[in-house]
# Entry
Amino acid sequence: MAMIAKQCPDVSVHVVDLNQDRINSWNSEELPIYEPGLDSVVREARGRNLRFSTQVDHAIQEADMIFISVNTPTKSFGMGAGRAANLEYIEKCARQIARVSQGPKIVVEKSTLPVRTAEAVKRILATAGAASFDVLSNPEFLAEGTAVQDLLSPDRVLIGGESQTAISALVDIYAKWIPKDRILTTNLWSSELSKLSANAFLAQRVSSINAISALCEATGADVDEVARAIGTDSRIGPNFLKASVGFGGSCFQKDILNLVYLCEHFGLNEVADYWSQVVAINDYQKRRFAQKIVRTLFNTVSDKKICMWGWAFKKDTNDTRESAAIYICRDLLIERAQVEIYDPRVSEEQIRQDMYEIMQDGNGLVGPYKQSLIDRIRVVEDPHQAADSAHAITVMTEWDEFKDLDFCRIFEDMVKPAFVFDGRNILCREKLSQIGFEVHSIGKTSPLLI
Ligand code: UDX
# Structure
C-alpha cells in the first residue's frame, strides 16, 4: 500500500488495523518491520496521501477500493488443523465491509487464500443491503528483504476477476509505474491458484537441491558445483538452487500445506502426496542438520555451548516465521546443549517467544522441564561473544556480516576441536580449514572424509 501511495500521489491510501500499537509504529520513525528501503517509501507518502489509523469503519465508508490484507495462518485447531488456512480474519473483514458500506466498492483479496475463497467473500458481501461489490484477486509476489525493489519492478502483477470495469480500475493503478505487458489478468480462480502454485514451485526447487545435497555429502560431489551445472541449462535457470539448512518464511510451508489440503478435498490424493514431499524434504533437511551436529560432536552436545549465527528465516529481514533456526535450536536443546544466539536484527524477546511456541507441542516436554530447556538459551549482541568458548558455530542465516569476521580470533576463543556447521554455505571453507576449524557445509564432503 505504501508503494501504491508513493507511485500514485493522486490516490488516497488509508491503511487500517485494529491493533493501536502497530498503527502507532507505522506513524512513528521506527516502523514495525525491518525491510530495506521501506522507511523512505513510507516517509515520502505518509502525511501526503498515505494514512495509518484504527478507524476501520470510516475507512471502509470513504473507499472506492478495499484491499483485504489480513493474515491467513495455517489452522491450529479443528478440521484441517496443521494444513488448511484459517479464514476467520478474512470472513470478519468481509462481514464488516458488508455491514458498513453504503455505496458500490471493489474488494481486492491481497491475502494468500485457498482457491474459491472469493466465492465465500462474494456471498458474504451479497448479504449487504445498501451496497454492491466486485471482488478481485490480486496476490502479492514480493519476497522479504527485497520487497521495495520487487514492488517497484515486479516480474508481473496478477489480477483475477469477473468484472472488466473492476479489473480495469486496478490495472490503471499499477499501470502508473508498471509496463502493461507485465500486468496479467485472469479469472478469479486462476489468480488464486497461481499464488499457491508459484510458492509451491519455488519451494520445490529448494527441496530438490536440498535432497541432492544429502546425496552430494554421501558421494563426494559438491552441491554448489552441481547447482551451477544444473542452473546454466536455460530451461532450468540459476535462481532458487541454493542448498540450505531448509527454507522458512511465512509463505512456503503454509501455502504448500494449503495446496495439499485443497487436493485432498477434491479427492486428488496422488497430487496431494506429490506436494507433501516438498515439505517432508524440508523437515528432513532441518533434522539432518541437527543430527549431524550431534553426531560430529562425538554423539553428545549435553552442556556444550553451541553458537548460532542468525535467527531470521533469510537475510535482510527481522521476520523469523518458520525459520530453520527455531527447529535446529529446539533439537539441540532437547539434547541439552547450551545455545548462544546472535542475529543482527531479531530481538531477544522474539527469539524467546519463538522457542516458547515451538516447545509447546509434541516432544513430551512438560512445564518446568520445558522452561529449563528454554533457559539454556542466551541471546547476545555480538557474534564474537556468541562464539566465545563454544564447541561449535552454526550459521543459520546468510547475513553478509558473518563472512568477514575475525576468524583467527574466533578460533583462539573456542573449545578445540573447533567445529563450524555452515547451514548457508557462505563461509570460505579453505580459509577456515587453514586456520584450524573443522568445517561442515551443506552438500559438501565432510572434511574428515577428504
Ligand atoms: C516467498 C516468495 O519468493 C514470494 O514470491 C512470495 O510472495 C512469498 O514467499 P519469502 O518467503 O519472502 O518469499 O522469501 P524467499 O526469498 O522466497 O525465501 C524463502 C525461503 O527459502 C528462505 O528461508 C530462503 O532462505 C530459502 N531459500 C531460497 C533457499 O534455501 N534457497 C534458495 O535458493 C532460495
